[in-house]
Here is the input.
Amino acid sequence: MKAIFGKYRFFAAVAAVGLALGLKDPELGRSAAMNSAHFLLEVLAIVPPVMVLMGLLDAWTPRKLVEDNLGRGSGARGTALAVLLGTAAAGPLYAAFPLALSLREKGARTANIAIFLGTWATIKIPMILMESSFIGVRFALLRLAFTVPGVLCVGYLMERLVPDGPAPPEASVAQAAETSQTVESAEAAGAS
Amino acid sequence: MLSLALVAITVLALAISQAKDPERTRQALRIARRSFVALIPGLLGMTALVGLVLAALPPQVLSDLFRHDGPLGFLLVTVAGAVVTMPAPVAFPLAGSLVKMGASLSSMAAFITTLTMVGLVTAPLEAAYFGRRFTIWRQGLSFILAVGIGVAMGVVL
Here is the structure.
């Protein structure tokens, strides 16, 4: 219960402010509620199909093949696979951390890890449709055209700035695993 | 119109997937449901806030707020996006409604990039996985990238 309220605390705070304003000025409250409901319906028309497309991409990506080809010497092919893995997955950025860590332990180079994280965050093929419908096709395609090379540059720069290594110096993998369990259990609590 | 096309593409993809491998399709739907459920709190909060702001503030005030967004407004929006992390399906409708309020497309491009790529809130978690050095450089470079994308979009659009 507490965990659920925790996930909804932002919504609860906004709703409380809206309610308070609505009591002072019913006209304003009504128009706020109408605006929100209208907007929510607009969002709900788009989000579920996008989620299904992302689920399909996630389920059909040959993860094993990708994971085994991200190391040093994998060159352009490794980078392409890192982009593929990043675009095909579903979930927020912090859900990518455990997967990226396991890639690193399997010998993936820093550039590919950074590219994978960057792609996961910003470039998702089903999301281009969503971005187009909310902002504009031209906007979505142009942003994509700038973002892809940008993410690649950041990845290769990262490799010059941060040495490759199987485990971070500040924290052990066990600690990281503990944190990920916390995130997972928090998610599970929110989902139930 | 676009949402109709989206539904059509999704149904088609599902049908092909189902014909090829029902088990994998079930798995895909499980992933989809889990991601959707995880998004609900953020979507509710964001739509409620936008609805409230649109009702409470006169349109004139909103467009004035974003109109002279110049370099300062641009930077402010970009930094705001860097503090909070939002999944893309929440970020796009939000940016879309800000554009309707008068925000510039270039600042929204930077905003979306920092919202999804940079997160001071999730930085400690990232550092636990990859170390402080990796996290600082990745977030720093991503922030610079976001500014670059925003400026480039401003030039082209």
About this structure: Chain B has a mean pLDDT of 89. Chain B has two domains: 1-40, 57-156.
